[in-house]
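Quick question, first post here. What does this chain look like in 3D?
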Amino acid sequence: MPQKKDGRLKRAGVSSFNKPKRTPKHKTKSHIVVAKEGNKIKTIRFGQQGVSTAGKPKKGESAKQKARRKSFKARHGKNISKGKMSAAYWANKVKW
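> Answer (accepted):
Ran it through. Tokens below.
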């Protein structure tokens, strides 16, 4: 018997669980993800809209960008370590 798709996926506009998507029209948050861990499911919006984050580390990256990345990870380290059910985890993975 085929498994019924969860309504939260359609509402969020994502194709499957744990697949973040950009939300350019959202007022404050830049991304959305429907996180699933075991049998827990949660819709998470994360990232500040309109802010250019550091992105992935690049060769020859400026000291300012390195400092921004380091500060973010230090400030949110405890929340990032909570795993897939926290916004900080997704912001770290997608934006930093």
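The chain has one domain: 7-95.
The two ends are 40 Å apart (CA to CA).
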